């Protein structure tokens, strides 16, 4: 679908929420009295597009120089609905007005706008309309096929879905005694581990109280180190040189491509001069990067030395509290294990007792999948055909 069609779809969608006013209604009445075709307004567009026929809409300015001729063709193409509307009625703050009129639009049921042509003034009106009707009917047929298959899928799925809903309701009732027993074990485990959980919380707080100032100090040192690197004149110069070298290398690549396009041979002096320059630039780039890295290490060295004792203190905190925290985690796991094991036994017992129920669910799902497979295959084919015909565009007759 083209960008114009997307804009048009937004315009029609915005029109559905267009506020009704006394002036707009009066304007629509006047237009209806003089119109060659039935009139569509923002207030009626939703209903007009909701039918089973494709719709040909022509949006015009004050006058429509082709509407009368189109009206003469309406009886020839009863399979399509023809409407006209005033473009100004569809203006909205949320939509960019097309500004080129008349504007021909085709909307296909179930799809939306599929065609748009600006400056609607074809030399062969009958041929143009015939093209649009032919394409729109193919698109409508393909869209209807997709809708029909989806409806078949919905209808075919219904009894299986009902069976699964019943089985799900039965499962909740059958599983409740086991769920209650499992929850009871969980509560026992929570009670058994509560003393260790409290100790772990208190110990973690003590560890964090000692750890946090050290982490903050390391971050402060790192910040000063980065600032020193960014402010160092030598590193700044290296950074600028690297940028200049990259630009020069890109310019040389462009120059080389231009020589290739002109058919200049690789052995030509001009060609070789550019490749030699690129090699030199590449070497300079590598040397500058290496020098920049070395200078960065040099600038950061005093900060790294300053950070060492702080990092050592942080490591000491981890060694001090780490084993105690690990021991509490082990005690929590040990205290909860009997109840966790019992809960697992209860769950296994429940699953064994409810196996016929699970088998029934699997059977329904398998039967549903088997019943729907040909329909899903058919839907895939129908969607492919719909996509194909939506890409069709008969050459507009201008």
Strand-helix topology:
Blueprint: H1 3-15, H2 22-34, H3 45-49, E1 55-60, H4 67-73, E2 81-86, E3 103-108, E4 112-118, H5 125-231, H6 233-261, H7 269-353, H8 355-390
Parallel strand pairs: 1-2
Antiparallel strand pairs: 1-3, 3-4
How many individual domains? 2
* SSE series: HHHEHEEEHHHH
Please identify the structural class as seen in this structure.
alpha+beta
Q: Please mark out the parts with pLDDT under 50 across 5 or more consecutive residues, or reply none.
A: 1-11, 13-33, 92-98
Tell me roughly what share of residues is in helical segments: over 70%
Put simply, the count of helices is 8
Strand order, sheet with most strands: 2-1-3-4
What is the straight-line distance between the termini? 21 Å
What fraction of the residues are assigned to beta strands by DSSP?
A: 5-15%
Mean pLDDT: 87
Largest sheet features? 4 strands, mixed
Choose one word for the global shape.
flat
Radius of gyration: 38 Å
Number-wise, the strands total 4
How does this structure look, described?
This protein has 398 residues and is an alpha+beta fold. The chain folds into two domains: 3-121, 3-Layer(aba) Sandwich (Glutaredoxin), CATH 3.40.30.10; 163-377, no CATH class. 74% of the residues lie in helices and 6% in strands. It contains eight helices and four strands. It is flat, with a radius of gyration of 38 Å. The model is unreliable at 1-11, 13-33 and 92-98 (pLDDT under 50).
